Queue: 2 jobs
Job 1
Amino acid sequence: MNIDIADIPVAPADPEELRRCAHALRQAGAPLRLSAENILFSWGMLPEVYRAPESVDLQDSMTLIGPAAVEIITGIGLACTAVEALADELDAIDRERSALVTRIEKRFLPGLAERPIPDDPFAQRLAADARADAEAEFRRDCAALADRWDAAVDACAARLRAIPEIPWALSARLRVDEQTLTAESTSITDAAALPLLTRLADRGGADAARLLAAHPEWVAVIRRAHPAAIAQWWNSLPPATTVALIAAMPAVIGNLDGVAIETRVAVNRVRAAARVEELGRQRLEAQLDADPLTTRFRSPSAQADGRLRAIDDEIAYFQAVQEGRKHLYAWDPDHGSLIEMSGDPSRATSALFVVPGTNTEAASFFGEKPVTRFADWQVNNARPSGEVLAFTVMTGPMPQLDLTRPAEGPQFNGLARARGGELANVLLGLNATAPTLWTMSYEHSYASAVGSEAETHGATFNARFLAGGVGAIGPYTPQEATAYYAAQAPDDVNRFYAGLRVGDIGFGVPPESIRGIKVVDSGISGVHPMKVLYNPFAPLSLAEAGVDHHNALMSDDERVNGNVLKAVQQLLKDGNQK
Amino acid sequence: MSYSLQPDQVIGIADRLRRALDETLDCSDALRGAVEALSTALARATPARTAFDDVAGARVSLSHGMVSHGRVAVAALRAIVMSYVTADDEMAQTAAALEARTRAPLFDPSRFGARLS
């Protein structure tokens, strides 16, 4: 045997590669715990809504999911630890190998400190013996090294075999069924809604009103369908059937995401006329309640006047809708939704969704200073003219700053979760009916968490603008296909608490922390809230200014909110050109 | 036991569960990929590789078993939902007749709405 460095045994694995793979494996296993919790959370809601003799078995069937996830993560973690220990061991042995290599290089490399061998046989014999000894030593060193490698590998194998086996109760009951595993996962909401829609459209829609009267719960099932499935169903209907369905269930069609924009607006215009009549009757009743000369008198004057003013504002609003001066894209008073549209859908190339936040209610759309002003400004100032379609969106109840209703305050994030799915459906409905529109949201305050939540329900806006936003509930991952913008005054009241969350209270991801977000200068001056907080001599007016500056971001007054109005205008213009 | 079903809620839960299981399947596939990568890294350390494959492979199977098992439960829920949405008037009348005979309410009118007359 010649002494050759190439003959020195090398490590049976690359320690760095082992560590990298073990780290990746730990990371791959970790989400399983969250997935299992998500499954169990969803499943845990079932007993509330489904009770039957067979339901108990069904409900109990998922009890093994939690222990299985723990078993997987624990076992994988122990296996990774064993492999990482092997990597450390291999590193230590590799240092011994390096020392051996260095020693060999010093002693035997050609031309390096080799003495010439005299020509006599004795000297030759001595040299040969020395060479044989060196070779024997080299063999022993190599064999020792190989033994060390093998021992390290065997120790790792022993550590891996010491990991407890998966309990039989888990492995036997959670067996893999390849057929189930490879089966296509199809939407249950669509599968449930489409037969109902088909039944409503049977016989040209002649039975629709009767069926819905008999099964009012169908509406909620239908609304869970994906807007694209609704659009496909609606577009396949004969025109006469659509007319019959509109007549039979206008409130459903007027709020159904996936039905064409113009159809919904027209249906809601008719519904507005009925609302005006109803409000007229309510006004008469309110007048009687307020008139001290009638037996119906029961309201103090100020209260009665307030009630009458509210009715008058609402009448004026729905008259405007009835006359086509305003356009209702959605209106469901039972659920608390109202979406007003501005602009011309036949000309528009981009759609802006303005989502107002805390304190938004139906009355916010009525009166002389409606919440739609920001959206209207963008439509009226669109460049090129007419290319922007805007929606001011309230998909359901929003939080209220009302001391009598503390559980509905904006500190709770539950309403953001509830509204997120609905906002997603509004966008998906528009995507299904007007797929060429470039879409952008302008989310004010609390609504920014609604927009972030909508993304988890499949909504992808081309751009999102978080104005004085709370950000996201968290954890949050921004979408690759969306451009993010934010603006707020330095003293915006949201700066007091954005980024703070404990469970159902607060929002853990402030807008500025969202990866890739561009902060737009709001042009609104102010003192950072922390300077107010830590300065006992700071006037209270500074905190009040924070609220004013927060609300200014919904203003259409260019003197107050010019920077943001124009920034959004520019984004819509750029979007139009894409 | 009384029988009650809130269809839209059950549908929502079933679909949410379906999506959660889809995500779990993605996690399981990612886990399998990571296990295979580490097994490849151990290719020349045969005893360790064999032991690792046994330990990790069983866990990958268990994670897929979780999804299989969950999907069976979702399929059962889907069947319940589909029986509800495809129930026709004749079925409702049959149920009504049975209910009249047994005096045991099968449907909760507050959930299902009024029966067709």
Note: The first strand of chain B starts at residue 4 and ends at 5.
Job 2
Amino acid sequence: MIRLTYVESIRENTMARDRCKHQWRMTNPRDGFIVTEKCYHCKASRVYFSYEDVPPKDEYKEDAHYWNYAGSAQSAKFDMECAKCGKVVTFEELMGLMQCVQCDAACYLNTLSKICESQNVWLYAALSYKAGEEIDLPEEKLEILTAHFTGRLRTPGKKIIAVPGSLRKSPDTCKGEMLKDVGMLSLTPET
Amino acid sequence: MTVKDLGSKLNLKALNDATDTEVEGAFISDMLSDVMAGAKAGNVWVTVQTHKNIIAAANLVDVPAIIVVRDKQVPEDTLQMADRVGVTVFATNLDSFQIAVKLYEAGIKPTT
């Protein structure tokens, strides 16, 4: 009987969460570094997030690749939590958001950005990676980011939309940069 | 207070067009992740960062103006991006603490 009540309460909670009109907020912030590596043989590149205090700069061989450190920037990861029902959605694969810099007229993200910007709608590509390879963030998570950032706006009519990174013509030629702390470690006091 | 009024009142150098957007509160940080998580729409953002990423971050959280402190040189591509999204960039030789005091004296109070 007790067991049945427990199961029913879980089911009730789950149903309540499904009905909830979520109000997303950031949670579980995790500091670290976005590290870019390049293979000097085949010119392939990959990106990963390091939680170490100092970004790793070791060269190493893995399968057919010879990975070399190509740069890093301080950043943070986060998850999203509903302030109403407590549901937490993890964003471990999300490396960062990127706004199009309109570098390539033939890029779909560029074309779409220009159309949207004229209506005060701003696209941010949610660049995501799994095992160093770029993947698209699932639609549900894109919607959560869109709801969260648009919900924080004050300007009437303005909207933020998170879109998949695959809208870019090519990650290799795209000049857009993720929102990360470029040059933070080189900030030095003036003499 | 509008962005334009803020510039005149604090004697800031506007590096692009100062808008008539209302400013409410301020946020001081040099980390973009901090701004993404903590800045509120309408805040003026005080930072030493000048990379064009700051404009993308400001636009994301609806920050209408950025004050770049300690005479840091703001690159042209940052200003072009600022024009595109309608964010005003100010420059000053003061540091973050001095600007914080001036903002408070000008009536910009912390937002909760």
Note: Chain B has one domain: 3-105.
